[in-house]
Each structure stands twice: as structure tokens, then as C-alpha cells.
């Protein structure tokens, strides 16, 4: 089932903290790394707008887990490849939670292509959801904070792959490179109202392309003998949101994997 063109009302919600508690929108927060980030922020006093596309059951579980902390949460459905839907997402969050103070762009389209299979369609698909949506959400946050005379932050999830390139996942890598460049431009354009920080994990979670044993072996391939964990990444996102003097830069959280040379993407090694 495809996501609608416009964000829906919250799929579920907990009892919310007072309106003075800050609100963060975390995209792709229904599961995996986005979920870990959402729960980390909820545990540290943030009310969390849990974005999802199709994973309504997982989003509901994330909201319920956030309810175990002191912060409230609600789930919002949106197709990030649809410009109209993305433009409606922030106003919908504000309508239901009363305010928005930060955006964490964690959702990501990740499909394989290379120089031989590259197409305009593949590039556009990745650019729309991985870079374009993040820029529009930053733009909307800036407008809202200007109206409130308040300050906030955007954290964009990138990839150590940008500093250690290989020819796999070409369209995905191009989209993340565009987002990394947008970090600098947005940091300049949206200051002083909005800070913009990148967080670039290394190999953090396994996938259908990696067995558990293979993932464990690859996770150790770094100068520190371990790559990033979901907890590491979530803690770094929290740090970036809290540090009021940080903008226009990227924090690499990968155990130093970006310092090594990998001929192929982890999933194809």
C-alpha cells in the first residue's frame, strides 16, 4: 500500500508533555536507526513526531515505547518522494503537537545501482527522498521558528561512504553527497535561526544483504576494531541537537572506517 500524498493525522499518540517541551520530527522513525534516535530523544525530554511511510505497526510500537519515557510522541505518515506531502508534513506536526524545534532526517532510500545500471529514474528517486525532502523540511522548520522568534536545529544522517567511496550504490551515494553539500548551504542560509549538522555513521545495522556472521566480521573492520552502534549514532544526534555552537559540519561516527579503503560497499564485500 503506497503512502498518501498528504501527511495523515497521527496514527497513534501518547499523553503529551506540556507545550513547553521541545518537539523533534524524526523521519524514518518507525524502525531501525530512526527508531533508536527517536527513543533516545524521547528519553531526554523531547516530544517526538515519529515519521513513517508504510510501517504503521512499527510506528505505533515506537510511539508506545516513547511513552515509557517522560516525553510524548505521535506518528505521522508521509511519502518523502512526494513534494506536496513533504511540504504538508511540518504544518501537520505543528497542528497536532503545537510546535516544532528540530528535524532529524534519518529516513533513506537505499537501492543498488552502479555505473552500468545507473539511470535518471534511479538518481531522481534517491535525490527526491534523501536530499530534496530534507531540504524542504529544513526550510519549513526555519519558517516556523522565525514566526515563533525561536531557534532550532536540523540533523542530517549521512554515510561514512562519502569519505571512503566505492562504485556501488551510485544513486544513493550521489543523493547523500548532495545532502552533505546542502548542510553547508543550509547552515549559511538558515543561520542564526537554524543550525544544521551532519552525522555520518559507519556500518551500524545488518540487512537482508548481510548475514549475522558476515555483519559481525565487517563491523570490526575499522581502526578502533568496531564501527558505530545504533546507541552511538543516537547519542551523537542528541549531542548535535544540544550543542548550540555547532553548525555546518559533519560528525563521523564510524570507528574510523572512513580512514580505510574498501573497494566495494559493505553489503557486497
Description of the structure:
- It is a single chain.
- The protein is α/β, with parallel strands linked by helices and 269 residues long.
- It has one domain (23-202, 228-255): Rossmann fold.
- It is 41% helix and 14% strand.
- The protein contains seven helices and seven strands.
- The chain has helices at residues 32-43, 56-66, 83-97, 120-148, 170-190, 212-219, 230-242; strands spanning 23-26, 47-52, 73-77, 102-105, 152-157, 194-201, 249-253.
- Strands 3-2-1-4-5-6-7 form a seven-stranded parallel sheet, sandwiched between helices.
- The radius of gyration is 18 Å and the shape is globular.
- Mean pLDDT is 91; it is low at 1-5.
Short description:
With 269 residues, the protein is an alpha/beta fold. Helix content is 41%, strand content 14%. Helix 1 (32-43) runs parallel beside helix 2, helix 1 (32-43) crosses helix 7 and helix 4 runs parallel beside helix 5.
CATH-defined architecture: 3-Layer(aba) Sandwich
Q: Tell me the strand order in the biggest sheet.
A: 3-2-1-4-5-6-7
Radius of gyration: 18 Å
Summed up, the helix count is 7
Kindly state the mean pLDDT as a whole number? 91
What is the overall shape?
globular
Order of helices and strands: EHEHEHEHEHEHHE
Please identify the top-level CATH class. Answer: Alpha Beta
CATH homologous superfamily descriptor: NAD(P)-binding Rossmann-like Domain
Which structural class matches the secondary elements? alpha/beta
Major beta sheet, specifics?
Answer: 7 strands, parallel
Q: What is the name of the CATH topology?
A: Rossmann fold
First-to-last CA distance:
33 Å
Share in β-strands: 5-15%
Helix content: 40-55%
What ranges have pLDDT less than 50 throughout 5 or more consecutive residues?
1-5
Number of strands: 7
Count of structural domains: 1
Amino acid at each position: 500500500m503506497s503512502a498518501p500524498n498528504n501527511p495523515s493525522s497521527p496514527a497513534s499518540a501518547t499523553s503529551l508533555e506540556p507545550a513547553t517541551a521541545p518537539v523533534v520530527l524524526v523521519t524514518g522513525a518507525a524502525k531501525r536507526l530512526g527508531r533508536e534516535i527517536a527513543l533516545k530523544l524521547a528519553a531526554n525530554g523531547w516530544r517526538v513526531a515519529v515519521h513513517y511511510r508504510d510501517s504503521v505497526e512499527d510506528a505505533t510500537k515506537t510511539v508506545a515505547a516513547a511513552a515509557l519515557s517522560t516525553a510524548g510522541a505521535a506518528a505521522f505518515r508521509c511519502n518523502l518522494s512526494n513534494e506536496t506531502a513533504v511540504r504538508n508534513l511540518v504544518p501537520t506536526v505543528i497542528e497536532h503537537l503545537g510546535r516544532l524545534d528540530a528535524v532529524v532526517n534519518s529516513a533513506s532510500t537505499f537501492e543498488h545501482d552502479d555505473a552500468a545500471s545507473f539511470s535518471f529514474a534511479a538518481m531522481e528517486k534517491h535525490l527526491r527522498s534523501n536530499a530534496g525532502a530534507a531540504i524542504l523540511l529544513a526550510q519549513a522548520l526555519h519558517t516556523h521558528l522565525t514566526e515563533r522568534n525561536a531557534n532550532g536545529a536540523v540533523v542530517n544522517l549521512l554515510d561514512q561512504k562519502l569519505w571512503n567511496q566505492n562504485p556501488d550504490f551510485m544513486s544513493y551515494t550521489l543523493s547523500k553527497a548532495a545532502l552533505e553539500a546542502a548542510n553547508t548551504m543550509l547552515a549559511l542560509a538558515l543561520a542564526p535561526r537554524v543550525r544544521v549538522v551532519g552525522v555520518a555513521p559507519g556500518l551500524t545495522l545488518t540487512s537482508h544483504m548481510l548475514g549475522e556472521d558476515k555483519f559481525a566480521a565487517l563491523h570490526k573492520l575499522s581502526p578502533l576494531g568496531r564501527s558505530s552502534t545504533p546507541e552511538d549514532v543516537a547519542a551523537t544526534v542528541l549531542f548535535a541537537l544540544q550543542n548550540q555552537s555547532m553548525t555546518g559540519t559533519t560528525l563521523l561516527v564510524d570507528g574510523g572506517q572512513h580512514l580505510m579503503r574498501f573497494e566495494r560497499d559493505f553489503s557486497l564485500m
